[in-house]
Design brief:
26% of the residues lie in helices and 16% in strands. It contains ten helices and 13 strands. The strands form three sheets. It has a nine-stranded mixed β-sheet, with helices on both faces. It has a two-stranded antiparallel ribbon with strand order 2-3. Helix 1 packs parallel to helix 9. 45% of the residues are buried. The structure holds acetylphosphate. Acetylphosphate binds next to loops.
Length: 332
């Protein structure tokens, strides 16, 4: 059932954290991660098993369905194929300073090297959404003006602002796929409700505590690995899960899908696309992680029955960035 704007505004007023950690705060719910919490999370690394949750950063990713985003473009700027030609032509080629300088380096010398670069939207592949990623009514998290995000970057609530938090905490996997017995992934149009999150945690024997980072396994990435269809819709959290995240004092949430939440209009809010994004990022100050691959981690959790771990997921310090690539690591 589609909910109304009045429903949305009631929840927004309830979960809004503006001023909770001071008027200048740009960390939001990462404030729940205290030094004691980080130390507690470190103790969860008991066996030394490491699970990288980042997906490939390359041309085979899921982007392309939206024209404003494309997959990471990786290009070589110097490579081994250039070496012989550079020795022969480079030093004389004064009109190409790169070829000239690299060529000179290679003549009568053992030394060779390769260089490369990546061009990509910061919203491609495994990522964190910074708090300024979405907004409404001209306000970002904590009331900062939306026009403080400029063509020079975000003056407020950019991804560089969360650097002091690492980000490291206790991670908890909620495996909705396994709980539903859903096969590979959650079909669209049947979003995960707050009650279901509680039921999954109960069934897994895990208790959520303040400052946790919750990982929701929807199976979307596992499905994508089979089909390579990045446009295929899957399900995710119902927008009312924002209240669940608020009530449990969760520091951040990530999923293995495109948007964390279920984008199906039938279970959303009339007149507000991605209502959970608006509530989490703008009202609560709670970051979202997208396209985290939980395939191996979920299999291991099912095998040993341990759904908590140390999670280390530092974003890049992109100054003024609206998001960041990340290769999160779960350590058990
Ligand atoms: C939007 O689609 C705007 O955001 P995200 O990449 O966070 O899903």
């Amino acid at each position: 059932m589609t909910d109304s704007m009045a429903d949305f505004r009631r929840v927004a007023d309830d979960v809004r954290n503006w001023g909770r950690w001071g008027d200048a705060d740009e960390l939001g719910t990462l404030n729940f991660i205290t030094a004691a919490k980080v130390a507690e999370a470190t103790a969860l690394a008991r066996t030394g098993k490491v699970f990288p949750l980042g997906v490939d950063f390359g041309s085979g990713g899921p982007q392309g369905a939206f024209e404003f985003r494309h997959n990471p473009v990786h290009v070589m700027t110097v490579d081994g194929g250039d070496a012989q030609a550079l020795v022969k032509y480079g030093p004389q080629w004064l009109h190409n300073s790169v070829a000239h300088h690299v060529g000179k380096l290679f003549v009568d010398n053992l030394f060779r090297f390769n260089d490369d670069m990546v061009v990509m939207p910061l919203q491609a592949a495994s990522q964190w959404d910074a708090l300024c990623h979405v907004y409404y009514e001209d306000k970002l998290y904590n009331g900062f003006p939306a026009d403080s995000v400029t063509s020079f970057g975000a003056f407020h609530c950019g991804i560089d602002k969360v650097d002091s938090k690492g980000i490291a905490s206790r991670g908890v996997l909620l495996d909705v796929v396994r709980h539903r017995g859903a096969g590979v992934f959650l079909e669209p149009g049947n979003p995960v409700t707050p009650e279901e999150l509680d039921a999954v945690a109960r069934a897994q024997g895990v208790t959520l505590t303040r400052g946790d980072i919750v990982l929701v396994h929807t199976g979307w990435w596992t499905r994508f690995a089979q089909t390579r269809n990045g446009a295929e819709r899957g399900s995710g959290l119902h927008w009312r899960c924002a209240s669940w995240l608020h009530d449990n004092e969760i520091a951040a949430v990530a999923a293995d899908n495109m948007m964390v939440e279920d984008p199906h209009p039938a279970s959303g809010v009339s007149g507000a696309f991605l209502p959970m994004h608006l509530l989490c990022l703008r009202d609560m100050g709670l970051m979202l992680g997208e396209y985290w691959d939980m395939t191996a981690l979920s299999a291991d959790c099912a095998a040993d029955g341990v759904y908590e771990f140390q999670l280390v997921a530092p974003p890049l310090r992109v100054v003024g960035g609206v998001g960041s690539p990340v290769n999160p690591i779960a350590i058990k």
